[in-house]
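Troubleshooting entry. Yesterday's outputs looked truncated, so today I'm pasting the complete records for two proteins to confirm everything comes through intact. If either block looks cut off, that's the bug. Protein one:
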Amino acid sequence: MPWAGAWLVLLSSGLHVSWNALLKIRPSLVALGQGMVATGIVGVAVALAFGERIGPGGWVFLLASATIHIAYYLLLNRGYQLADLSAIYPLARGLGVAVMPLAVAVLLGVATPVAAWIGILVVGTGSVLMAKGERIGAIWPALTLGAVIAAYSLTDSQGVHLTPPILYMSTASIITGTALLATQGRRAWALGQLAAGSLIGGLSLVGYLFMLAAYQIMPVASALALRQLAIPMALIWAWRQKEAIGRRRVLAAGMIVLGAVVIALG
């Protein structure tokens, strides 16, 4: 495993947990939308300065990615308003990995390996265990996020072949952020929240770019397997924040991590 790629994945995981933790502390679509627009503008400016341009057909994937990400952030924000990060985060990330091979099989006609089916079963069992002790009304966003994560992962994996990653993600960030602000009406211009939102948006953008860069220098399966370390990172943060994690959540999260690793390496 290339060490440079491994470090990029670990950095991406840490940044991902960080901005999720910030969104949990301040679940505001106003701050998030403003931050995504602000950081997106900076990213686009940098990309254009280096001569990057949106490739032919790139706008189709950009608009599709932005639309899916709008649903992603709406669901994630709602999830953190209703339930603990230690429940929402493992469910969303694990189900996203589990749904991926099924989506590839349906959309691209690629057969799902036996190992992937075993991993899906383990993730599913861990998810049932996690959900069993929670109020379904509180964790339904996380259960839905699995399909959304798989959708934007498939879309972006194709989109970055048509448009350079920084320009692609920054443009999608502007579109997504603008749409999120539009859902908030007059509350969209609370400038006092710009700093917090920019930090969330910046961490999200940079973390995703690190992951895309890792895909270029190491096997995708290895990167996805290592990426699952974000789940125990999230549990450590939740524990430090005095969330009532308990043995059940730890066991369920462990099964989700194990299953996701099996899927990635299978």
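Protein two, checking that the full record survives here as well:
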Amino acid sequence: MTIILNGKELALKSEEDFSNRVSAIKKTSGITPILATILVGDDPASETYVKMKGNACKRIGMESLRVELSKETSTDELLKKISELNANEAVSGILLQHPTPSQINERLCFDNIDLSKDVDGVTSLGFGKMSMQENAFGSCTPFGIMRLLEHYEIPLSGKHAVVIGRSPILGKPMAMMLLNSNATVTICHSKTQNLASIINSADIVVGAVGIPKFIKAEWVKENAVVVDAGYHPQKCGDIDLEPLIDRCYAYTPVPGGVGPMTINTLIMQTIESCENKIKN
């Protein structure tokens, strides 16, 4: 029977534990974990995502500090705001909502987030430490996928995982996390030659290319684990999922699979950041 990797269900279950951890932090230290979200400009999708993250904080008793900057904001102005949040002792985590307007040097701004507050896992240093299996917060979407695979006891060691996508906050960290779990990993993208045959060799397929239904159902072999990290206005992901449902070993539904785990992981890592600070 095909396993449905239900991220929505796992995220809701996790929030019970998160609420207890936040309550314990408040009781023992008087501190409330705070996630600072920076929104530059007025992109409707980004506005929705920031609101969802704020609601998630509220559900478990955390606080969110919403920082809104105009679409004309310069890189220097954004760096100054990030520096202020880095220095703010009350802030446990910082999230810079992606994408930022074109005039912003987004990578420079990401890399100026204090590593201890990089709860979205976007800094180059954090990526390097994670790849080397040192302590660092992982990029939220791939780490959310890893948590989902672990929860459903999906075997990874020795399996061939094919990641389609190479973005710095999804495809690349996803490949490193799978490699660190002893999978054999192939990274592909939209320009890969013989893509169908490579995907057909995969025990685990991760769609992270950002193109609706780019990965065709006939490319995926029987009993593969199918993880779709995409979501598009057409209410579909990066994989042509419907024909696969009855012949794969496990799959993430779209929506309700990977998406809820992304925000859930962001919240989890903000709590961890606050706990780490109290311990130290």
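Both blocks look complete. Sanity check on protein two: The first strand starts at residue 3 and ends at 4.
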